[in-house]
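Q: What would this complex look like in 3D?
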Amino acid sequence: MKPDKQLKSLDSPKAQKKFRIYFYLSLCILLCVDLIAYFFTERHGHFSWEEIPVFNAVYGFTACVGLIFIAKILRWVVKRKEGYYD
Amino acid sequence: MTNALPVAVIFIAGSFFIPIFRGKMKSVYLLALPLLAFTDLIFLPQGESWQVGFLNYTLILSRVDKLSLVFGYIFILITFIGMIYSIHVRDNTQHVAAFCYAGGALGVTFAGDLISLFFFWELMAVASTFLILAQKTGDARKAAFRYFLWHFFGGVCLLAGIIFYVSTRGTIAFSFIGLSDTGTFLIFVGFCLNAAVFPFHSWLPDAYPRATITGAVFMSAMTTKSAVYILARTYPGSEILMWAGAFMTCFPIFYAVIANDMRRVLSYSLINQVGFMICGIGIGSQLAINGVVAHAFCHIIYKALLFMSMGAVMHMTGRIRATDLGGLYKTMPMTAVFCIVGAASISAFPLFSGFISKSLTVSAVAESHQTIIWLMLLFASAGVFHHAGIKVPYFVFFGHDSGIITKEPPLNMRLAMGIAAFICIFLGVYPAPLYHILPFPITYQPYTFFHVIGMLELLMFGALAFTVLILSGFYPAELRAINLDTDWLFRKPGRAFITFCDRPLKTFGGAIETLVSKIVSLTFLGPGMSVKIEERFDKLFHKILTSIPSVIFIWMKPLKTETRQISWNLLYILLPFVFMLFFIFIFRT
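A: Here is my prediction, written as structure tokens for the whole assembly.
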């Protein structure tokens, strides 16, 4: 199959930058919606911190950064050459 | 007795006739079997049927209730999809093994007693081993052997547990067991091994990446999920399962992030997803069990979809390591889309199937106010998006361009992936049909404003972390390397121990013996005495000092990973098994 012209443009730095801008924009919209909802509605969670508006965003970001940090340390401990068991 | 057969019989008996058919007829037959089984399942009466007398016990081959029915549906459905995916395979062994394997899973699901459960359980282990062996590489052969040994260990634990259980309780009923004594604990270990609960999980990321392309699809669906079904029936509400499950959701994520083989990444994320189910079983409330069943249903489909898309890449390019792949979206756009659907489903994105099933379990955890467990599951939800949701599609279809020019996979592969992707989206948008067949009545509403916003925030900001780390170059680079897991314990020190028994210990023993006979022959004691002294030494050295290592050595030495040695291996495994049965029988009171 011949590579599609439109698809190929995804590789260019310009397209990637555009994609990233849309991505950041959607993050901002998400935060705004959450904050607006915080002022106009009452929310009930099973835990007190569920009522903090951007709790999930902060938790998701820190969890993933922490995940990579620990994974890097883990790799340092458990990494072996591919033929290690042979 | 009814006219409808036990569903497992259709698959197992049906598999024997596969080699008879040729060409198109074979394809038709392979697809007709799951359809026949499904029709049969509809006609099976509710409750217990097919009661067969066996050694003074009554075996129940078909127990249809709400819990077993859901698993019956999904196992038949995934066999159908998997068969479409593997219809181009001309190797009869693989098809027969796949059907026997699925038959074993269905047998386990509908078994009403522990004896027939054990029979189908072992059938699954044996049949699935052939799905790894069929890859026909040295690596696969060794992995298949390790896989078999693991499951044999699990099977022995289960059998010992069943014997204890039957002798103390006097019943073979397969219903709630609960952790109380030695027997129930052994049964528990046997089940947990198949569910890949830590530390019995290492067989999974060891064997699945080495199975055949099509075999991995079946394996990803059956073994762990049938164990989940059994645990949900026998050990609901065990607190240990709650913690074990929560731990299972977290630790594989780290391994998945640094694994290079894409199917190994998926294997670790499989453990992570099964962790959610195990945790739900540990909670044990009606909502939690509903969550377990719904999640198993959705998980089987999206995990098979992910394995199918990676299998398609492997089928077309012959490569599966992240270091060799990248930029494939240009030549395999359709596969890329299917993979992204699977990735979105496993990450529980709103409008995909994972969202409507995972949230049931998480809500059940919140309802029982298990704060630490809840935070662990939330971390795992963000983490699974990180490795299965972004890493898999990114490093295979995007990322650096590997320059591989290839084509879309054959039509049957695309069709199977298409069906699975459709179900993922359909259930995500319209969960009512799935909620309708769950074992307990349900009023849960997944699409509330705060739930959707909360989940989107969690996932999107996880994605932001990925973007930031990739751009800053901090993200762990893909390396050609392997990562040690708990199987290191028996693969390295175990081997060293055998070598130690073989070489130094044997040489040392031989040297001492020669020395003793030399010294004795030099003295005035005469040949009769020298033989006597040598015998004494022999007894001391061989029977007392080295008895344990030498017994293990004698057992382990003939264990070879060659397939032609398999009968010897089986004999060596069976003998201690018989001994154990004997001892259990003596000490059963």
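A: To summarize the key features: The CA atoms of residues 11 and 57 of chain A lie 29 Å apart. Helices of chain A lie at 5-8, 13-40, 55-78.
Q: Very helpful, thank you.
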